[in-house]
Amino acid sequence: MPVNVVRDARRADKCGERLRIGLINNMPDGALKATERQFLTLLNSAAGDIPVHLSLYAVPGVPRTKSGQCHIDSYYLSVSELWDNDLDGIIMTGAEPCAPDIRQEPYWNALTQVFEWAREHTRSAIWSCLAAHAAVLHLDGIGRYRLSQKRFGVFECVRGENDPLTAGLPSSFQTPHSRWNDVPERPLADCGYRILSRDSNGGADAFLKNGKSLFVFFQGHPEYETDTLLLEYRRDVGSYLRRERSTFPEMPEGYFDDESIDMFRSLREEILSKRSNELPVTLSGGHMEKRIANTWSCHARRVYKNWIEYLCVRDDQLGQTAFAK
Question: What is the spatial distance between Cα 193 and Cα 206, in angstroms, rounded to a whole number?
Fold first, then answer.
């Protein structure tokens, strides 16, 4: 049964046995629709026969172009619609930060309202990337730190503690990451967070914290489509050619095959020598997607399937499930 996306929040209150999930999409305009599609596709494949009602929400203060705001106005609800309602689960995406301190972002107050609301009005919430960093900062004062270089690519991850959320996953699996910042494991452990997986650099990939609502945090992007990192790499190369950044971007790690890596290295030398304002045909064409192996989506579906099954647990069973230990 497909996931049903409906804008009218009142219909979510009358959907009976249908799970009610909210997607709070804070991504910039260039990734707004792609992020909708990524999560809708992932939830569709993970839900199976479980009926799901998905509502889209937006927080105020995220910078938008005129066309981006028009899309928000047409298909999204304001998060203010949440305050007097309950949902089974929510997913909040990251945003493109402008300030060095997340608390200086214009949408910070709106995020903190969502965090507090979710503790009381959901069974579980998923916080992705910057939303995960903002949540642990607000909830437990755990700050992130800037990495020496961008963690960009597909990384091998190792399962941490045994948990129903990672049931069915192999001992190691791959997850895409694209971020400049990291939350260290030690303060997470000191504040009662449980590490579900660690990436190849030894950092926390996914973690959770039990409470009235089960909070799940992803520093990576298991929802990414096959070509998402390629599109981001193209964007970054384009920014370099337009002189919007001073350094040539690094290729995503663990993503391209050896032949593609050699080709992109040669392409880099060509670009550096010419420094034109246009992307080379090799990089701008659509044939590269066929060379990329998606090694993570099957694992992402498994985690989200486990999460959806958790949301299906009735209130009187919550104390008996291993998730609530």
Answer: 10
Whether 128 contacts 23, CB under 8 Å: no
Please give the single-letter amino acid code of residue 274. K
SS3 content of the chain, % helix, strand, coil (to 5): 45, 20, 35
| Rounded distance between C-alpha atoms, residue 189 and residue 319, angstroms | 23
Q: Please state the pTM of the whole predicted model.
A: 0.91
Considering only residues 226 and 280, tell me which one the structure prediction assigns the higher pLDDT. Answer: 226
Rounded to an integer, the average pLDDT of 233-242 is 89
Rounded mean pLDDT, 204-217: 97
Range 295-303 average pLDDT: 98
- Which residues on neighbouring strands pair with residue 181, listed in sequence order? 146
Q: Per-residue confidence at 256, pLDDT binned at 50, 70, 90? A: very high
CA distance 144 to 134: 9
Q: Where are the domains of the chain?
A: 4-224+295-324, 228-291
Residues recorded for the chain:
325
Q: Check if CATH label 3.40.50.880 holds for domain 4-224+295-324.
A: yes
Type of residue at 171: S
Positions annotated as catalytic residues are: 129, 221, 223
Residue-wise pLDDT tens digits, 73-88: 999 999 999 999 999 9
Q: Which of 73, 63, 60 is nearest to 112 (CA)?
A: 60
Q: Which amino acid is at 104?
A: Q
Phi and psi of 149, rounded to 5°?
-145, 160
44: left (phi over 0), alpha (psi -120 to 50) or beta: alpha
